[in-house]
């Protein structure tokens, strides 16, 4: 079974995380029993379960990028103001 990243796991809700842990446990058991056909189905369920957390992670990244762009713009604007006051 493939685990999702720590970043994605950190953005799962409590219910999603409980379900994720349960599915991973079942998937590991099925792999131990050489039931890879059924473990594949469980992995597909895990993949669907983590999609909302992946979207939250992407949105968080976009917010951080916007904040960085705003900060850099404010620095540029400050430099422009500083140059015009020196003249």
UniProtKB/TrEMBL annotation:
Ranges of biased composition (kind: Acidic residues): 78-87
Protein's organism: Paenibacillus durus ATCC 35681
Superkingdom: Bacteria
Region (Disordered): 62-87
Protein name per its UniProtKB record: Uncharacterized protein
Ranges of biased composition (kind: Basic and acidic residues): 62-77
């Amino acid at each position: 079974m493939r685990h999702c990243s720590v970043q994605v796991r950190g953005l799962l809700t409590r219910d999603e995380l409980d379900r994720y842990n349960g599915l991973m446990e079942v998937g590991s058991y099925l792999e131990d029993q050489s039931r890879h056909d059924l473990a594949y189905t469980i992995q597909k369920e895990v993949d669907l379960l983590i999609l909302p957390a992946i979207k939250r992670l992407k949105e968080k990244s976009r917010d951080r990028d916007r904040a960085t762009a705003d900060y850099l713009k404010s620095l540029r604007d400050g430099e422009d103001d500083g140059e015009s006051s020196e003249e």
